[in-house]
Amino acid sequence: MPLRIEDYALIGDTQSAALVGKDGSIDWLCLPRFDADACFAALLGSEEDGRWLLAPSGDIRRVRRRYRAGTLVLETDFETDTGTLRVIDCMPPRGREPDLVREAVCLEGQVSVRMELAIRFGYGGRTPWVHRLDGRFTAMAGPDALTLLSDVPPRHEDATLRADFPLSAGQCARFLLTWHPSHEPVPLPIDAATAVQHTEEWWREWSSHCAYDGPWREQVLRSLIVLKALTYSPTGGIVAAPTTSLPEALGGVRNWDYRYCWLRDATFTLFALLNAGYHEEAQAWRDWLLRAVAGEPEEIQIMYGVSGERRLTEQELPWLSGYQGARPVRLGNAAVCQFQLDVFGEVLDCLHVARRSGVPPRDEGWGLQRHLLEFLESNWERPDEGIWEVRGPPQHFTHSKVMAWVAMDRAIKTVELFRLPGPVERWKELRARIHAQVCERGYDAGRGSFVQAYGSKELDAALLLIPQLGFLPPGDPRVVGTVDTIQRELCEGGLVRRYDTHRSEDGLPPGEGTFLACSFWLADALTLLCRLDEARTLFERLLSLSNDVGLLAEEYDPRTKRHLGNFPQAFSHVALINTAQNLTYPSCPLTERPGA
């Protein structure tokens, strides 16, 4: 039976990441970085598209797994009729080249173990040439090479390395897989046993700096570890997820490549890192943001590559069948070409939060912000594709206009607080104009709620952010009405959908799961309305949706009780961290956060 999305766990080295299934198979890995070609792509196809299996060869009665506390070192225990096997997986902090370490340890009895390594470069499209040298096997195709060093000598058959071997209690077999450019010599191997210990120590030292000490510390720390794992450490960019094309509806076409960095996540991510005590990561994220958006304002994109790349051309891989038949499998993301007005507010808000929080300002920072504001003054009334990147016609999305107001508001506050130069009176006048227009055209008095777009009757979960952003106070009847209407009409099984895909014109076939970040936003809004019991109940429900090792996807289907979308999703974990903070310290509502 195919694995569910939530049956996977994450390992990574803060430059790339792998998904390890409950069956002991690594079904997804891109090397040498998140957005590189996959060498294991079984997640989006079949075993023939590349995977690495290490598990008992016989029947398995029970599987239990966990991360070692405060780390990204994964332990999976397989109970069989004859004994128990533990598989330990990690990607050590990177030296020159990326490594992946796997250990098979027999805990009790005797277990027959099977290892199958099928390397398929180019997302399953290239079967490598495999040769043996000095006791190591190297698989090579095009620019990529992977070298396997193992305690158990494998055999090469059918373009796959295989080994079958017994282990008795206390015995261990280790495997080391190292990527390197095919034109360079095979690098010297690291010591696998030492590498696992070093990886554990590295993560525990990093985790020790977590400043959150509330009732949900374990879940918050796990989410912070996910954020760190999804950080491309050379630049500070944080990818939305390590995967592409995991579907938002099983068998559907809402399958997108999320291995890039979105501006929409900027403030939420910065706020989560700062509140948790990770100022270095927050500064690195701020610096990545400044580098990525540098240039002419009309050229600003909603997303960038991990080093700030701008060309993310979307294409399809027809040879991959897709996760459980969900096609097409996409690389790149055509939404990169969209005009999304809200990103200007997100950039200005993020930079203001950073400055207010003591992140040292960059000399070019304020000049860049002034440049963006000048563009926004002339373009804020344009329709756009909105925060949800609809592939239908542009609209005057209410949330986008609110974010244009945020941009002006944060610019004014920055000038007033830090005595920086700027046409404050002109910005104040425009801020007031935007506010008045949103309240007039984005609010439906008959529904008692803000609506998705001017003239629309539809709802949008992004409108839950209105009080968080400081656009209106939480107690305003229009805010209360919007929260109540969304809670009544956009919720399914108590969780929030982004919008009604059957009624909204987004250019795609209808149908998707509830959106986890939006559900956390509802908990935040209820907290601001002092409906703390409701907020805590919803938050605990959301925590219960995490898989057995604490990971969340982008969406959840309450009917099938399955995770949907790319996995694990940074936006979901950022929202978890922020909601935990808000519920732990409800006397400090979000409207008092830096930037509001």
From TrEMBL:
Residues 217-580 form the GH15-like domain. One of its GO terms (molecular function) is hydrolase activity. The keyword Zinc-finger does not apply. Keywords: Hydrolase. Residues 4-126 form the Trehalase-like N-terminal domain. The keyword Signal does not apply. It holds the Pfam family TREH_N. PANTHER family: GLUCAN 1,4-ALPHA-GLUCOSIDASE, TREHALASE. This is Glycoside hydrolase family 15 protein. It comes from Archangium lansingense.
